[in-house]
Specification:
It is built from four helices and no strands. It has about 160 residues and is mainly alpha-helical. The model has no long low-confidence stretch (mean pLDDT about 80).
Length: about 160
């Protein structure tokens, strides 16, 4: 080893002793002990977490249902007439706003309320992916439907 071998070991041992303190326990900042672990959740806290989770999911499903309803009304008005086609785009936009707001607010609240809902991170990620997938499926279905209708054109009265 070199001349630094013994001196380096001695300096490292001294630094470790200073870090650990006299009793051999690690010292913490400002001489405080580590915080105690949180107490186990009671049945009431678990029930509150479950109710909060169900309320959040109910909000997502409500917004999504309203978006699907507006989209359905848009589809019906699209096939009625040219005037209905203009109104249909408004209903499609309204449906998109409902679906996107519902999915967005669900994702934001899921991130903010993950700890009060006692959700593990993988479960929260799976729930977030499911909400994003719902919105994406709605968007894909609507774009395919509009593309198909634009291709076919409006169903007018038969010509003789």
């Amino acid at each position: 080893m070199g001349w630094w071998g013994g001196a380096g070991r001695a300096a490292a041992a001294l630094a470790l002793r200073r870090l650990r303190g006299a009793a051999g326990r690690p010292r913490y900042s400002l001489g405080r002990a580590p915080p105690p672990p949180p107490p186990a959740a009671s049945d009431l806290e678990r029930a509150d977490a479950w109710l909060l989770r169900k309320a959040l999911e109910g909000g997502l499903l409500s917004w999504f249902r309203n978006g699907l309803l507006a989209t359905g009304v848009g589809v019906i008005s699209y096939v009625q007439s040219d005037t209905g086609r203009d109104a249909a785009y408004g209903f499609f936009i309204l449906g998109g706003l409902c679906v996107s707001y519902g999915a967005g607010s669900y994702l934001v609240n899921l991130v903010l309320l993950r700890r009060p809902m006692m959700l593990p991170a993988p479960t929260a990620a799976a729930n977030a992916a499911a909400a994003a997938l719902l919105a994406l499926l709605w968007l894909c279905a609507l774009s395919l439907y509009i593309g198909r209708l634009e291709e076919k054109g409006p169903a007018g009265p038969p010509e003789h």
